[in-house]
Amino acid sequence: MPGGEYVREREDSSRDRGRPAVPEPLAIAVYDNHTHLEIQDGEEFGYDQALARAAEAGIAGVVQVGGDVESSRWSAALAAQEPGVLAAVAVHPNEAPGYKAAGTLDAALAVIDELAEQPRVRAIGETGLDFFRTEGDEALRAQAESFEAHIDMAKRHGLAMQIHDRDAHDAVVETLLRVGAPVKTVFHCFSGDEDLARLANEHGWYLSFAGTVTFKNAANVQRALDVVDHSRILIETDAPFLTPVPLRGRPNSPYLMPHTVRFMAERLGMHEDALCEIVNENTLRVYGSWKDDA
């Protein structure tokens, strides 16, 4: 789900919104560490087609991410049957207030905690704070309660944690420093600046760059890429959202990640193969091997 404020940039409604062609494949296959295949899944373009096109483009595997009880169960089930998929499970911060108002937040978190025991569930996420789409003290308290519960889960299960941080950088950092961040903490769809990137370097947090890094109004994210330690870089699509330039306004999918990889490699002044090797090492350190069930 969109994690950065850049998604608000208005798209040109005249653009072709059909599915783009598969780009030139990456020579060294990499991993999309955050996607939402359940949102893409349908008669015209199912998860199986998404995964097949991803393989054509040089995508070795994906982390399928849940945002509520239903999608987290779906994610865990897909990971159990598809060798190219690992799962992340959570109650999204924008879903937490609804569960809380209905009196079912504790029950929802208990389901996430149970799903986290499955061997191909490798992350708690996406969780965090969103001050853009959620308003009101009660709703924000529900977000904070849910976020801290997910942090505890990630630490107890020894899993990575994927953070949704939208217009909430200071509060997210304060929470992580106060309660203690999981060893493998990932800022999904990183939308901060170079100061937050330096803080991530200091604490060993990972920054996951989505298609937003290619946007013309994302100079702060690009500057963060310039200063982040290379051992902390991950790449994602957040599909079907945040399609990279030059395909903005068209549906995103893991197979389009080569556009982001190539933009980042050029920005960093390195060959795309070198960046792929760095990202692969980081990805496997965070999530473990897609070939293993434990």
Walk me through the structure.
The protein has 294 residues and is of the alpha/beta class. Helix content is 42%, strand content 15%. It has eleven helices and eight strands. An eight-stranded parallel sheet has the order 1-2-3-4-5-6-7-8. Helix 9 links the parallel strand 7 (206-209) and strand 8 (233-235). The longest helix has 21 residues, at 137-157.
Write a brief structural summary.
By secondary structure, the protein is of the alpha/beta class.
The overall average pLDDT, rounded, is 92
Protein structure class: alpha/beta
- Measured as a percent range, the helix fraction is 40-55%
Biggest sheet strand line-up? 1-2-3-4-5-6-7-8
Radius of gyration: 17 Å
Q: DSSP helix count?
A: 11
Key traits:
alpha/beta; 11 helices; 8 strands; disordered N terminus
Question: Mind sketching the topology for me?
Answer:
Blueprint (H helix, E strand, L loop, with lengths): L29 E6 L1 H4 L6 H10 L2 E7 L3 H13 L3 E5 L6 H6 L3 H11 L5 E10 L6 H21 L2 E7 L2 H11 L5 E3 L6 H10 L2 E4 L9 H9 L5 E3 L21 H12 L3 H16 L7
Parallel strand pairs: 1-2, 2-3, 3-4, 4-5, 5-6, 6-7, 7-8
Helix pairs in contact: 3-5, 8-9, 10-11
